[in-house]
Amino acid sequence: MSDRNDEPLVSVALRMVVAHWKPAAGLIHHTDRGVLYSSGNYRCLMARHGLLPSMSRHGDCYDNACAESFFSTLKNELIHGQAFSPCEARRG
User: pLDDT for 58-75, tens place per residue?
Assistant: First the structure.
């Protein structure tokens, strides 16, 4: 988690997944069409690990509905209403 939703955040998350799960080359990684996932750096990182990109069609918001629902619940139950000091946010 981070206070910023940017390409470095998703790249760190992808590196964590690769280090922990060691996915086989050819794994299909499906995302939305956001700039985070379509950036050159992120796509190069995926290619270095043999991951194949998959993105939904333009305007197709339904394939991501389950993930969006999960993150909405996560925010409502764990984040909203909480006060975090700057030091706490960087500790993780």
Answer: 777 677 778 788 888 888
Backbone angles phi, psi at 71, to 5 degrees: -70, -30
Rounded to two decimals, the pTM is 0.70
Residues in Cβ contact with 70 at an 8 Å cutoff, skipping those fewer than 6 apart:
none
The amino acid at residue 35 is: V
**Domains in the chain, CATH or no CATH each:** 7-91 (3.30.420.10)
**Residue whose token pair is 């940017």:** 6
Tokens of residue 5, six digits: 């939703």
Residue entry with tokens 């992808």 = 14
Beta strand segments in 1-92, E: 28-31, 52-55
CA dist., res. 69 & res. 60, Å (int): 16
